Amino acid sequence: MAATIRDIRKQTGLSLATISKYLNGGNVLPENREKIEASIRDLHYEVNEIARGLVTNRTKTIGMIVYDIESMFSGVLIRHVGDFLRKEGYALLVCDSCNDEAIEADNVRFLLNKKVEGIVITPVSWKADFLLPAQHKNVPVVLMDRSFAGTDFDCVKIDNRAAGYRAAQYLIKRGHRRIAIIASSVEYTGWERYKGFKEAMDEQGLSLPEEYCRIGVHTIEFGYESMQKLLGLSERPTAVLMTNYETSLGAVMAVNESEYDCPDDISMMGFDDLIMSHVVKPKLCMVVQPMKEMCEKAVGLILTQINNPEDRPPIELSMGTTLRDGNSVKPLQ
Questions:
Q1: Interval 25-38: pLDDT, tens
Q2: Model-level pTM?
Q3: Domain 61-158+291-321 classified CATH 1.10.645.10?
Q4: Strand partners, 304
């Protein structure tokens, strides 16, 4: 039978109030702390975290909601957020929104019922209404990857528009004029990257035919189908920008299955320096997000809100990206 607080009382001779105060994080006399800790080790006593949470209103648990847990991008964020929280003595409870706004709203309510102390989220929705239950319960929220205009949530993201702009400039400076893009009209990140790409093209007076704009969703399937269609055009683009990891992976698969070669027949540039970019040949030119640093900042913001709640304007951290050279872009100059 599992040891109880009464067993500790019997072994130490201390009052239940003193033992309970220690178990709930309160200060007790040093000699009493030593007795309690020795008894806990001897009896193999395990704290009932649920019961303690009800008493202290501190569960030491953070909820994280990701737009799609199948996404490697989501997986890397979960890993880093979990690592940083663990160092601070917190646990992580993860929910998958499956790219569905209704599921996303259910996830928020689920986490609130689990008494999480804060929520980190990569949102699916374009509006923040689904987060109102968290606001009503004063549960801190930190957004990752995107922000909501006119809301009171801290956010950590990259400058997606600048990232798309710089990627287009990279291709243009290497002599490419017929440049296509595979992006998303569903995710905020994809749409912002498209706008930056379009801005760079417009500045150079370069046309962007409708058939070069493959706008849909950030999935492997869409990347694959889009690249197939681009390769089938009578006037193929000389370069293609894929605006997230999944579309990059799908596009690489399509080229590998075709009669064309990268970069001799088609140049390619992708997003996110994850596993694929280290195993495919040629080595892909990539727009790289500082994912670990983003997660560290997000954890810092959520714990600051929990431990030092104060009225202040929301903090939005917009981080820069880097361009990693590879062998997948052929200079045409």
A1: 678 888 888 888 88
A2: 0.80
A3: no
A4: none
